[in-house]
Amino acid sequence: MSDIATTAPEDELPFGTFDAEGNYVPRQVTEDDLGQSFEDAIAGTLVDVEDGQIVNGTVVKIDKDEVLLDIGYKSEGVIPSCELSIRNDVNPFEVVKMGEELEALVLTKEDKEGRLLLSKKRAQYERAWGTIETIKEADGVVEGPVIEVVKGGLIMDIGLRGFLPASLVELRRVRDLQPYVGRVLQAKIIELDKNRNNVVLSRRGYLEETQKEQREDFLANLKPGDVRTGVVSSVVSFGAFVDLGGMDGLIHVSELSWKHVDHPGSVVSVGDEVSVKVLDVDHDRERISLSLKATQQDPWQEFAGSHRVGELVYGRVTKLVPFGGFVQVGDGIEGLVHISEMSAHHVESPEQVVTPGEELWVKIIDLDLARRRISLSIKQAAEGGELAEEYREHFGIDEQGNYTVTDDAEREAAWAEYFEELGEGEEPAAGGVTAESTGADTSPAVDSPAVDDPGADDLAVDDSDVVSPAADNSAVDSPAAESPAAAAGVEAEPDAG
């Protein structure tokens, strides 16, 4: 053993040696080959980071509030859960996995707790912004899932948060945006502002571009006068939009009904299937005008077809004007009783004879279908006459259509039968309609209640029927209080019994 120890090279000996004096000399294990201090050597193995720098690292720990990322720094970087994704309230375990390599942006090298703070979503934002700018310059299309519904629209994940306004989600405005969450959509970029971190998108612009040829073909095959079936897609204050199967058309509020419409929602609802008539097609603006009432029976045509001049009809006073009063005698039909036709006596004001809401018999003295005007008379109704067809089956009449029953009990029974047919004892107002005004556009006797007295020519009034106030200064008796068809024995204000 001693021979081996003395002949083997010193650097190969597993132990130290002894010098000539017999002192033990430890074996030299290593040499100073770093060429620098140990601290400098350690620092050389660490990365150098600055605020705002994008770094790469490996996920070494995942917690519910944060993720630790090893980027080769003296300590692991901390990514708070709110900096993991552009989505809100995410679960860190669903965003990253242990050992995953990812990019992060340095928020601060050392916070008040001495931690290196990082952000994954801001690194993603920086990378995506350059791509988005390139797409915008090329007028391209972005694609991404809808991740959130916010006030006024949707948020799309396109590498950053892109805002898609509700009015630009479809070719028509969409009321319920919730079903779009999770769907992958394509959209055009219409606004880009990096300083404000603002990206506005338009899916409607993308759809208009891709469906342009289809829309042109649809419009080319659509002609005014066509009757189409569609579905109400939205209801607005000025009308309703109808999906015709390729494009939306607008039914203006004035084209929804022959009657006055306070709000389109009282006539149609979203999802209703309707039959509409095409009024106009604007190829340049790609607008389609539709009418719902044009596919329905015109109440004026219906009334004119079932009534004649000289007949008695039952109606309700809807409003009074200085020169007379309007009486509703049908569904959406109003006629004018000129002040000269209110009483056989001189009348200073219509309020002396009738009041709004009052029900009474009137006689048709003129019916102008072309101008949609009806002239009525309370004065002549009081003289009796022929009942309109809808009343005849309920009342006893002679061969001329005049009322013949004079017994009160029979008369009450006739009214009760008429009311019962109208439905559950409702009081009759022009054949069972409501008493509310139908609006200026359907007022038949004059263009507007505010206009001047239309005169005797328009209303076929004979001035000789008007009694001079000097001839009789006695109090005015209201014919409405009397039997409106005295000769026929019909009561003016029947009780529904």
Please render the helix and strand layout as text.
Elements lengths: L1 H6 L9 E2 L5 E2 L12 H7 L9 E9 L3 E5 L6 E4 L11 H4 L5 E8 L7 E4 H18 L3 E10 L2 E5 L3 E5 L18 E10 L4 E5 H8 L1 H9 L6 E10 L2 E5 L4 E5 L20 E10 L4 E5 L7 H8 L4 E11 L2 E7 L2 E6 L20 E10 L4 E5 H4 L4 E2 L1 H4 L15 H15 L33 H4 L38
Parallel strand pairs: 5-7, 15-17, 18-23, 20-22
Antiparallel strand pairs: 1-2, 3-4, 3-6, 4-5, 6-7, 8-9, 8-11, 9-10, 11-12, 13-14, 13-16, 14-15, 16-17, 18-19, 18-21, 19-20, 21-22
In short:
The chain contains eleven helices and 23 strands.
What is the count of distinct domains? 4
Radius of gyration: 45 Å
Separate helix tally: 11
In CATH terms, what is the architecture of the largest domain? Beta Barrel
**What fraction, in percent, of the residue positions are helical?**
10-25%
CATH topology of the largest domain: OB fold (Dihydrolipoamide Acetyltransferase, E2P)
Segments where pLDDT lies below 50 for 5+ residues? 1-6, 424-497
Mind summarizing the main beta sheet? 5 strands, mixed, barrel
Which structural class do the helices and strands define? alpha+beta
CATH C-level of the largest domain: Mainly Beta
Number of DSSP strands?
23
Describe the structure.
The protein has 497 residues and is α+β, with helices and mostly antiparallel strands. The chain folds into four domains: 54-123, OB fold (Dihydrolipoamide Acetyltransferase, E2P) (Beta Barrel), CATH 2.40.50; 139-209, Beta Barrel (OB fold (Dihydrolipoamide Acetyltransferase, E2P)), CATH 2.40.50; 228-295, OB fold (Dihydrolipoamide Acetyltransferase, E2P), CATH 2.40.50; 299-481, OB fold (Dihydrolipoamide Acetyltransferase, E2P), CATH 2.40.50.140. Helix content is 18%, strand content 29%. The chain contains eleven helices and 23 strands. The strands form five sheets. It has a five-stranded mixed β-barrel with strand order 3-4-5-7-6. Strands 10-9-8-11-12 form a five-stranded antiparallel β-sheet. Strand 11 (184-193) and strand 12 form a beta hairpin. Helix 5 packs across helix 6 (212-220). The longest helix is centred in the first third of the chain and has 18 residues, at 120-137.
